[in-house]
Write a structure and sequence with these properties.
It is a single chain. This protein is mainly alpha-helical. It has three domains: about 180 residues, no CATH class; about 80 residues; about 50 residues, no CATH class. The protein is built from 15 helices and five strands. The chain has a five-stranded mixed β-sheet, sandwiched between helices. Strand 3 and strand 4 form a beta hairpin. The radius of gyration is 21 Å and the shape is globular.
Length: about 350
Amino acid sequence: MVMLESLAKTYRRPLVTFFLAAPPVQGDRGTDFRHVPAEMIDESQDALLDTLVRTIRARQSLLHDVLADEESEALGFIDSRTADDGVDALVDDLRAHLGVDLDEFRGAQTPTAAFALLRSAAEALGVFVLLASDLGSHHSAITVGTFRGLSIADRVAPLIVINDLDARAAWSFTLLHELTHLWLGQTGFGGTDVDSQIEQFCSDVASEFLLANEELADAPVPNGDDELRDFITHYASVRNLSRSMVAYRLYRVGRLDLLDWRTMADQFLSEWEGSRENERQRRRASGTGPSYYVIRRHRLGNHMLNVVGRALADRSLTSTEAGRVLGVDPKKVGRLLEEVH
């Protein structure tokens, strides 16, 4: 029994599951866009990811039903392109639909503010954009290497999840990457690799959107390792971009080799994780930081909060169902929806 309880905890399944006559049917996780050898997959992390995907898909299904009841129109950009159309065509489509001014994006006060511009534009198109990295507590955190982004290419209620354990400057890139999957009509999730052809295509679209090849063509890229890191750090900082993405663009235009880019990307992620943990401990020690409700609203996004609030008012969702969609106790739904515009 102790072993069964341990398995239930590890795989996030009810204990009764292990007494069934046959294994439960595996839910549709969508496509795994990661290109990771089986022996390198962390089973405990994969179990957490599997649970997150199941939960997100259940929440998205409720949102779909709400919008279908409202007779919302199908969104034409979902599954409107193929990779054969090329990177430039997808970049042009994204820019035309989002209408985000790149100068305004780069002029935002922080990378988080820059991301908010892109997120608002995506939500205005009808895309739900969530920030999520665990199953309710930091004890179930899912690493960026396991999962960076997730897309559900539903024509009525498309949804994107971004792993908010990643550097804040990387959120915009991941959002654009996952939007590209929506344009291609693809439901699935990916990590940090680009060995998958489709992942590289989506990364090329996202990074070209934020930093065109022409901008890097004449950039004074130094040769020394320290000088190159300093150059990338400054270049990314003044444009609200992630350092890893700038390094990736340098690799894609032939000014950095694959090994150097991967080495730098790993170093940048490690540095971010260290600074994030230091900040978490500092806030815990000082007792400062935003409230639970502020954090939850930020992670859920205004589009989801508005749809759920409207559905509650119309009684097309019960408070219990609203709690399921929002991922909170039903008793907290009312407070969570306060001051949402």
